[in-house]
Amino acid sequence: MPQVQNPQPQTEVKPIDFGKGTFSSNMKFMFDESQKLFGLTPEKAEKLARQFGSDLGAAHNVLQFKLKFGAPNKDMLRALSMSAKTTRYGYPPSLQVAVAIDYASEAGKSYVSYGYTKWSFIPLLVEWIEKL
Fold first, then answer.
1. In the chain, where are the structural domains located?
2. Would the pTM count as exceeding 0.70?
3. Mean pLDDT across 63-73
4. Closest to 28 measured CA to CA, from 12, 48, 14, 55
5. Of 6, 62, 117, 128, whose CB is crowded by the most CB atoms within 10 A?
6. 108: which residues sit within 8 A by CB, 6+ positions away?
7. How many angstroms separate the CA atoms of 98 and 30, rounded?
8. Which whole number is the average pLDDT over 85-105?
């Protein structure tokens, strides 16, 4: 008598949605680049990206903003320029990882090959990522 095998259920991989908030595009960049450059798993990359977004929100609270208004055009529409800065800020680990990702990403634009360069975090950041 032939044995009947139950087919394995297919699990759908849902795309990661970071919403449409102020830092959503930054979180998506962090998610993609942390996997590509540093080999993080999608689960760790998502946790890192979400922590990064949270820490950016906290950093947003200590920034000092400066607004500059442009002259109105014929339709009475004006340009608005906004800049922000802080004097000194102690970066949380997620922002330190973002600096590393930015550095490695910029290196790729300067003809450093992703295929030949092995990027890795210092042990302190590796431990922090593992705890996410």
1. 24-131
2. yes
3. 93
4. 48
5. 128
6. 114
7. 7
8. 89
Two tokens at 112?
Answer: 């450093």
Rounded-to-integer distance, Cα 26 and Cα 31, Å: 9
The type of residue at 90 is G
b (16+ CB within 10 A) / e for 58-94? ebeeeeeeeeeeeeeeeeeeeeeeeeeeeeeeeebbb
Read off φ and ψ for residue 67, nearest 5 degrees: -110, 145
Give residue 111's identity as a one-letter amino acid code: Y
Residue with the larger pLDDT of the pair 73 and 117: 73
Q: Give the alpha-carbon dihedral of 36, 42, 48, 51, to 10 degrees.
A: 140
Q: Considering all CA atoms of the chain, what is the largest pairwise distance in Å, rounded to the nearest integer? A: 85
Per-residue CA distances from 4 to 1, 7, 24, 119 (Å): 9, 9, 47, 48
